[in-house]
Design goal:
disordered N terminus; 5 strands; alpha+beta; five-stranded antiparallel sheet
Amino acid sequence: MQTHRTMANHSFEMLANSKDFLSIVLNNINSCVLLLDRHLQLQAFNNAIRTIFPHNSSEDIHYMRCGEAIGCAYQIEEAKDCGKTSKCSTCELRLAGMESYLNNTEILREHIVRPFFNQNKEREMKTLQFSTRGFHFLHERYIIMIIEDISAFQKNSTATA
């Protein structure tokens, strides 16, 4: 019986050498998982980015800045790079990412309501919940950003209130 209990209590560390397993797990998470560098450029992402932010669903989005990859309406409408629009200095996603990178701060379950473009090139408001955390890997610092689209949940909770 002790063996069974020990086996059940293993963490994901036992699977750390299985790239295939970790890839399958990440791509089956409903939340958008983004790995960003110090310039907030996308280094890696899971499949959820294509469903939550379908604006660039047919494009290669590696190395795009965060706002460009997720279809930020301000970046598209102003035709400026992510980080250079009139709204970037107050963007909660950008500020949280930079805070985590620079100060090794963990940002948990913050909310943002912003316009994004969808796959039909139409502007739509989304309510997002996000978390960020900085970390080191192979002598580099990165930011992991996890984003959930809670727009439908927000609409349902305001309709019943």
